[in-house]
TrEMBL record:
Organism classification: Bacteria, Pseudomonadati, Bacteroidota, Sphingobacteriia, Sphingobacteriales
Protein's name according to its UniProt entry: 2-dehydropantoate 2-reductase
Domain Ketopantoate reductase N-terminal: 9-152
Known role: Catalyzes the NADPH-dependent reduction of ketopantoate into pantoic acid.
NCBIfam families hit by this protein: apbA_panE (TIGR00745)
Organism: Pedobacter westerhofensis
Family: Belongs to the ketopantoate reductase family.
GO cellular component, one term: cytoplasm
Pathways involved: Cofactor biosynthesis; (R)-pantothenate biosynthesis; (R)-pantoate from 3-methyl-2-oxobutanoate: step 2/2
Length: 308
């Protein structure tokens, strides 16, 4: 089977993840990547510039309505509350052969995207292991992490998977294409439910979770509620999956902070609905108590309200 070459990539969401991966693609070939954004955002990026690890990046920007070719690949890197708008914004750039990946945390974004643009365009994906810190249009990171992706229906050797592997190999973006992407997504979900929320409530950077501390225990308590729920979805997470994600956390910069803690500090809305909110909803459906996430939910909502 000949592998399709991805020659043009459109990224929606020039934030921590979007900035990191768009820069790597730009290094491969300056013409390969374009950022989809509305005019006010484009003006903001043009006025303040976009800086990644001390280097100013000049990206090419496009808006819905611009006459440009369909994308070979669209990468969605907005926060969950911005997803519906982002889906509308990418629609004009989706042609018959366009592949779409969402790097959003949580386990729900792909379903929403598929409902609007069709599941034939999608691969399931997430990003893990990076320690990106963003302040406005200034981004820094020491670990780029990796993109984990797969074809939920057709395993890890489908034409879509092979095309994406080829792009990431050429651009030096670390990746993994596991056999079972659904299980992998749940392991990431469990990690985020634990560390994003515990770090936000405790205002703690990764260093606090890299040893046997009360912070780490709190993180594990929240993560175990995901482990319990996973049994109802045929995913069957195990204690070893918690041990594995702790190993990833141990590799991150001790001063680095989760995206959720960065949101609270910058007085932005958090993604608590796709973490504790989702856990509570699944718990109710299956009559499984989720007291840690119920408590986290109320505290984080309180923090959001008192921030702004
Ligand atoms: N940061 C991290 O280390 C990691 C994050 N993730 C997940 O990845 C997702 C993205 O996170 P992150 O990169 O931190 O998010 P950021 O908040 O850093 O970036 C999101 C960007 O999207 C922009 N945006 C929102 N809506 C639109 C739109 N319609 N068109 C164009 N741009 C838009 C925002 O602009 P504006 O600010 O102007 O609203 C913002 O710059 C989240 O789900 C997060 O949980 C996953 C792994 C690690
Ligand atoms: C895994 C982690 C904590 C950083 O890679 C993340 O997903 C986030 O900050 O949202």
């Amino acid at each position: 089977m000949s592998v399709k070459t991805i020659n043009n990539v459109y990224v929606v969401g020039l934030g921590a993840l979007g900035g990191m991966y768009a820069s790597k693609l730009q290094d491969l070939n300056p013409g390969i990547v374009k950022i989809i954004a509305d005019l006010p955002r484009i003006e903001k990026y043009r006025n303040s510039g976009f800086n990644v690890n001390g280097t100013a990046r000049a990206f090419e920007y496009i808006s819905p309505g611009d006459q440009v070719p369909f994308a070979d690949l669209i990468v969605i890197t907005v926060k969950f509350h911005a997803l519906s708008q982002a889906i509308q914004d990418i629609k004009p750039f989706v042609g018959p052969g366009t592949l779409v990946i969402s790097l959003l945390n949580g386990i729900g974004s792909e379903e929403l995207i598929a409902a609007e643009i069709g599941s034939e365009h999608l691969l399931h994906a997430y990003a893990v292991g990076m320690d990106a810190m963003r302040e406005g249009t200034t981004l820094s990171y020491s670990k780029i992490g990796r993109i984990v992706f797969g074809d939920k229906e057709n395993g890890n050797t489908s034409a879509k998977v092979l095309a994406l592997k080829d792009l990431f190999e050429r651009s030096g973006i670390p990746f993994l294409a596991p056999d079972n992407i659904e299980r992998a997504l749940w392991t990431k979900f469990m990690m985020n439910v634990g560390i994003n929320q515990a770090s936000t409530i405790l205002k703690a950077s990764y260093g606090e979770f890299q040893h046997h501390t009360p912070a780490r225990e709190l993180m594990i308590m929240a993560a175990r509620e995901v482990l319990n729920l996973s049994q109802f979805y045929g995913v069957n997470l195990k204690e070893e999956d918690i041990t594995d994600f702790i190993k990833i956390i141990e590799t991150l910069s001790a001063d680095g902070k989760t995206s959720m803690l960065q949101d609270i500090e910058a007085e932005r809305k958090t993604e608590v609905e796709i973490f504790a909110g989702a856990v509570i909803a699944m718990g109710k459906l299956h009559q499984i108590p989720t007291p840690v996430n119920e408590t986290f939910y109320q505290i984080i909502k309180f923090m959001e309200l008192s921030a702004g």
